Amino acid sequence: xxxxxVVAIITGAISILLAVAYLIIVQILDYRDMQPAPxxxxxxxxxxxxxxxxx
Length: 55
Description:
- The protein is mainly alpha-helical and 55 residues long.
- The chain has helices at 3-30, 39-54.
- It has one domain.
- The longest helix is centred in the first third of the chain and has 28 residues, at 3-30.
- It starts with a helix and ends with a helix.
């Protein structure tokens, strides 16, 4: 095999490994127990956003 084919195969393998790693990370993050923010935090956030919109 010439050099360009070897580089293409290695690049393709790295690309597939990165894609699989990305999918695994997304699945792990998706399985986390996401709880809604407490009401007090939401009120503070809306106040901050209202102040930002004034300027």
